[in-house]
Amino acid sequence: MTDLETLTRAVLAFRDERDWRQFHSLRNLIVSLNLEAAELLEFTQWKKDEEIDALPADPVSHEALREECADILLYLLLVADKAGIDLAAAAAEKLAKNAAKYPVEKSRGSRAKYTEL
Question: Which option is the CATH number for 4-85: 3.10.620.30, 1.10.287.1080, 3.40.50.2000, 3.40.50.11060?
Answer without folding.
Answer: 1.10.287.1080
